[in-house]
Amino acid sequence: MAVSPLDHASSSWAAPRSPSRSRRAGRVRAALNASLHGWELDRQLAAGCDPESDAALAVRARRITSSRSRRRIADGLARVVGSVEPAPRAFTAAARPDGAEVIAARTVLMSLERRLRGEAQIAPAGAAMLGLLLIDCTGPLYQPTAVGELGSRLRAAAAALEPAGRREHDGTAAPEPSGREDTSVPVAPEAARDEALR
User: Secondary structure of 145-182 in the HEC alphabet?
Assistant: First the structure.
């Protein structure tokens, strides 16, 4: 069977992908995974996973420690503190933080807000812990299972916010992962439905 020059050329020649193209493709995949799997990646970072162990983790770590993300988390903490201020109760679909827990942890909340609005570097583990705390309607911010649980989680996040070198210098350390996987299903506050809307 005769083989045309064109068939021969197409079967025997294939330009190898250049290293620069491969790197670009890898960065695109990592960025896409960081966007699609943000919640799971945040859980891994909050548990103490090394961001450099995975490309998507590294992208997610950079995102949640960026100035924009820090402001967003700080704004969320400020809204939590403001949620216990005397004000007319408005109809809303958002879940409300537990007032008693917020009042008890107010000092820690305000300290964390100031920390995030500052210029000092923060570690992704602490940023991930705070971000998850704000959006998990089954967590201690909204549904605490014990008195003081919110304050304990906030103090753990505060310790985890400090970069590793600074924690070693200060003699503090982020809490060790519990080894148990949280199987609860998170619900973002803005998605929680309020019966008052009926």
Answer: CCCCHHHHHHHHHHHHHCCHHHHHHHCCCCCCCCCCCC
Distance linking the first and last C-alpha atoms of the chain: 75
- Locate the domains of the chain by residue range: 67-85+92-175
pLDDT in tens, 97-123: 999 999 999 999 999 999 999 999 999
Q: pTM of the predicted model, to two decimals? A: 0.71
């995030």: which residue's tokens? Answer: 116
For tokens 């995974």, the residue is 33
Sign of CA dihedral 72, 131, 198, 85: negative
What is the predicted pLDDT for the residue at 127? 98
